[in-house]
């Protein structure tokens, strides 16, 4: 079948103006101070983040106001975007305390620079919307069980109750009563992977934790009392979100204040972060300069040699 000049021009325009997939990402090794170098910023008390060559130690203490160490991604990831990040860290045993009568987390992950407030716990304002994080609750209770571990998504604000936006399964999938707490004074790698099922409209967050020997057993009896939980893998914990609405644009180490606590810390922990690795596949559309190229191609296809006159002034 013969395609005329006009048809070819339309095809060129559609092809060049359609979104394309591209990879974004970063690796942070903390060789130098990332705040002084301008890669990260701090909100809250900056003294709670202590840099040493090759690491950044964060002091979690839930009795003091929220502090965040933040690195912009450079783009906003739309709800349902596929991504993954890995974090190498050590939870120090020295000075560690987790109140057995409370819940508080070691947290890090993705936030929205505009929509994520400081009250993740929800005791006052409940305003930490649009986050996708790893949450480790090391608290162990004879009455409530624990510890708990899993991925969390908090949806975009819709005017409703803050806790309805929190997507974290406080149940068998995240409960680690059988496995016990994660090891301290041990280098651990947390890997969180986000995938999206366009047919079902669900975003699945899959978490795995490894030490030098490989993936740890973190989900021997998961959701539905099944071995390995939702995906049948005892080394993963999953959170599946229907109709996800969280858009994120920043990676952050999150030292949340426990706004339910009354005068005492519910979690105290020094956590040394050695490396952060992040990557995502995002859709982009051509920049304005690219459309000048599109118009140039159109003129070449449609007018042939006549383009020499008509293209003057485009560049």
Key traits:
single chain, 315 residues, 2 domains, seven-stranded antiparallel sheet, 3 helices, 10% helix, globular, disordered C terminus
Question: Please, could you describe this protein's structure?
Answer:
- It is a single chain.
- The chain has 315 residues and is mainly β.
- It folds into 2 domains: 1-18 and 286-315, no CATH class; 23-284, Jelly Rolls, CATH 2.60.120.200.
- The protein is built from 3 helices and 17 strands.
- The strands form 2 sheets. Strands 1, 3, 4, 6, 7, 12, 13, 14, 15 and 17 form a 10-stranded antiparallel sheet that branches.
- Helix 1 runs antiparallel to helix 2.
Approximately how much beta-strand content do the residues carry? 35-45%
Question: What is the CATH topology descriptor of the largest domain?
Answer: Jelly Rolls
Number of helices: 3
What is the overall pLDDT average?
87
Low-confidence stretches: 6-17, 285-303, 305-315
What Rg is obtained from the alpha carbons, in whole angstroms? 24 Å
What would you call the structural class?
mainly beta
Number of strands: 17
Summarize the structure.
This protein has three helices and 17 strands. It has 315 residues and is mostly beta strands.
List the helices and strands and how they pair.
Blueprint: H1 5-17, E1 20-28, E2 41-43, E3 49-52, E4 55-61, E5 67-77, E6 83-91, E7 97-98, E8 106-111, E9 131-137, E10 148-154, E11 166-167, E12 188-197, E13 202-211, E14 214-215, E15 237-242, E16 248-255, E17 267-284, H2 288-303, H3 307-310
Antiparallel strand pairs: 1-17, 2-5, 3-4, 4-17, 5-16, 6-12, 6-17, 7-17, 8-9, 8-16, 9-10, 10-11, 12-13, 13-14, 13-15
Helix pairs in contact: 1-2
